[in-house]
């Protein structure tokens, strides 16, 4: 049996940009993606701490070290610059393997930089 479990999480980063007129996705600083074991085009869930919105989209690599977290396309309507979000990815895994799996969770600072 396969189940869905938490794979990775970027906990509490600030939205730095929102680009409505762009093909949808979320652009994230490559340092944050790498630290959280996430890759470009991976499906993610975005949870907005400020307004309770939840949405699914995919990752685009942002400039390494920039702290960028930019919602693009229709997702830009779900958050404002300065909102705090959690970026979550999940994976399918065998039930027994999932019992032993440890997700990768990172806690960036107030400027979206690795601590």
Automatic annotation (TrEMBL):
Alphabetical keyword list: Autocatalytic cleavage, Cytoplasm, Decarboxylase, Lyase, Pantothenate biosynthesis, Pyruvate, Schiff base, Zymogen
Pathway annotation: Cofactor biosynthesis; (R)-pantothenate biosynthesis; beta-alanine from L-aspartate: step 1/1
Main location: cytoplasm
Known catalytic reactions: L-aspartate + H(+) = beta-alanine + CO2
GO BP terms in the entry: alanine biosynthetic process; pantothenate biosynthetic process
Residues annotated for substrate binding in this entry: 57, 73-75
Cofactor: pyruvate
E.C. number(s) listed in UniProt: 4.1.1.11
Pfam families assigned: Asp_decarbox
Modification after translation (UniProt): Is synthesized initially as an inactive proenzyme, which is activated by self-cleavage at a specific serine bond to produce a beta-subunit with a hydroxyl group at its C-terminus and an alpha-subunit with a pyruvoyl group at its N-terminus.
Modified residues (Pyruvic acid (Ser)): 25
GO CC, alphabetical: cytosol
Domain of life: Bacteria
Subcellular localization: Cytoplasm
Name of the top EC class for this enzyme: lyase
Chain's role: Catalyzes the pyruvoyl-dependent decarboxylation of aspartate to produce beta-alanine.
Description of how the protein assembles with itself and partners: Heterooctamer of four alpha and four beta subunits.
Protein name (database record): Aspartate 1-decarboxylase
Species of provenance: Mongoliitalea lutea
């Amino acid at each position: 049996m396969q189940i869905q479990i938490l794979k990775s999480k970027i906990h509490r980063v600030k939205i730095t940009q929102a680009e409505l007129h762009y093909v949808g996705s979320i652009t994230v600083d490559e340092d944050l993606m790498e630290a959280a074991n996430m890759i470009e085009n991976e499906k993610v869930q975005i949870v907005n701490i400020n307004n309770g919105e939840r949405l699914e989209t995919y990752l685009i690599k942002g400039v390494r070290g920039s702290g960028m977290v930019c919602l693009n396309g229709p997702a830009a309507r779900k958050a404002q610059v300065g909102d705090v979000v959690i970026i979550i990815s999940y994976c399918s895994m065998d039930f027994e393997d999932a019992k032993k799996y440890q997700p990768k969770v990172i806690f960036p600072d107030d400027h979206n930089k690795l601590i």
